[in-house]
Structure formats: structure tokens, C-alpha cells
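EI: anyone free to look at a 327-residue chain?
SC: sure, send it
EI:
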Amino acid sequence: MDNIRFGALSDIFSLVSNLSPHMTVVLTNTTVGSLWLEKLGELGAESIVIPDGEEYKNIETVKEIWRRLQELGFTRKSLLIGLGGGVITDIAGFVASTYMRGTMLGLVPTTLLAQVDAAIGGKTGVNFNGKNMVGTFYLPDFVLVAHETLSTLPREELLNGMGEVVKYGILSRDVYSLLKDLRSVEELDAALVKACVSVKMRVVSEDFRESGARRVLNLGHTTAHAIEKLSDYRIRHGQAVSIGLRVAAKVGEELYGFDSGKVEELLERFGLPTRLPFEPDDVLREMRLDKKAWYGRLTFVVPVEIGDVVVEEVDESLVRRALEAVR
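SC: here you go
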């Protein structure tokens, strides 16, 4: 976790100073820019502001950012800072990793989802006929996790991040213990965020390019990405992950006797969705196209018990039963 700083937004000035970039450009969206861009004024940075929304996470947006960087005279020794949620941090990482074959990159995640997951671990990407179908692995020079940026989030956005937080609660007994004492999403504190990041970085350090061990972080995501695509991304990522976790829990229950009730209790306590909004056949069709279906076979992250999951091929008939159980 050497490149991750937990602190205040003002810490960005020392982080940038340490890099001594030729130029600094902040990439953000209209919503986040109106809230936090002024706070970074002392950087003297240029800014690129794109519309807010998952629908803008595409190659056309990237091309426009590339064009703007060229106009600004951005070089390989320049720094691109992604200030925003998962869409922004994913796009910023992809742009930095591809422009001139790689520039300096800093990330300032401003949503719970981005702080515990999207901005951590070096994955970048844009949507192309599917969620994150085009992307790279590229580590940022720094990630600044400033808990204060969560203060402006609406409850809906906090809930969107809680889907990933519950995922870490299944992957880690330590996170699960913290979650058991949390009565509402509004009580979430910096310690829980840091615990989630610690789990992710431990896994990433073992398998940066997702050739094996890192795949456990996709718990709930095979179903989630199918739901997102079927909804034309109107259903947000964390909400889709919540439903996906319940499906995975049902698969684990049938295969290993996993207590799916523990997952359902957490999801319901925080007001997260648990019901599949589409027909199981439609979800299965999209699952077969998911990039995690290695060699064309359906692969699932299956919980055995809290703190223990396995990655394995799962028979479609079992997955169908799990989908039907949460319909």
C-alpha cells in the first residue's frame, strides 16, 4: 500500500510536489468538479471536465481527452489526476496508461465505491459492448483516500459503495467483524474503508494481472456485470454487486453449505437490493459473454465460509437455480 495515502484532500499538494510534474491536469466530471475542483486551485492545474454518468465511460470520451491533452502540450513527464468516482478513476487510468505509452497518474476517489475498490489495484478500463471490456493494468503514482469527500455523497451513492464493502466482508473475517457492528451506512468510518483497501491490496500484491488469486475480488461480479448490461447501466454497479453477492451465496450454500443468511442479513440491514430484476435466461446469456468466463466456460467466485472463497467452473444448471432463488 506504499502508493496509497489516507488523509485529507489538502495532502494532494505534497504528493504532487514530490513528483515534480512538467504539467498537471485534473480530470473530473461536472458533479464532482462543482464540489471539489476549487479546493485544488493552488495546484495551478489545467482541468478537463466531462459529463457525469456511466454512459460516458467509452472510447469516444477517451479520444476527446487524448485530443485535449495534445492541445495542452501534455507529455510523458506530466501528471494526470483523476478526481471522482469509479468512472473517472477508470478513465483516468486508461488515458494515462495509453497516452504516449504511459504518463504519471494520481487518483483521488471521491465515492465510497471508488475508495474501497475502483481506484485501488491498478485496473483501468472503458465499456465497449460490455462492462470494462477494453482496459489495462496500470499502477498510479499515488491514490489519495480523503474521507472528507464522502461528506457530500447522497445516501444512494453511499449505498452503491456498500455493495463492494459487503463483498469484502465475505472475503475477510476482519471486515465482516466491523460490518457486524455497523447499524447503518451513515455510521461508516475511515477505519472500515481502510480495512477494505487492505484486503484488496493484499490480494493484488499476490496477483497484479489477475492471472489467478486476484479473481477472488470478482465475487458477485459475474452476475453484477450481466445485470448492469441488461439494464443499459441504469442499475448502478454497487447495486448490481449486491444482487450478485446473494446469487454467489446461494451457489456457495448448495456446493459447500455456506450460510447465505449472513449475506442476506447484511444486504438487508443496509437497504441494498437482493432481488434479480431480469429473467434468469437473459442473465445467463450475458454471463457467457463476460470476460471472466475463461475459455468460454462459466466461472464463479464461490464462498465456502466467511473469509474463504474459491474460484471454479460452475454448472449452468446450478447457477440457474441460484438465479431463480433470488428472482
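EI: The two ends are 39 Å apart (CA to CA).
SC: 👍
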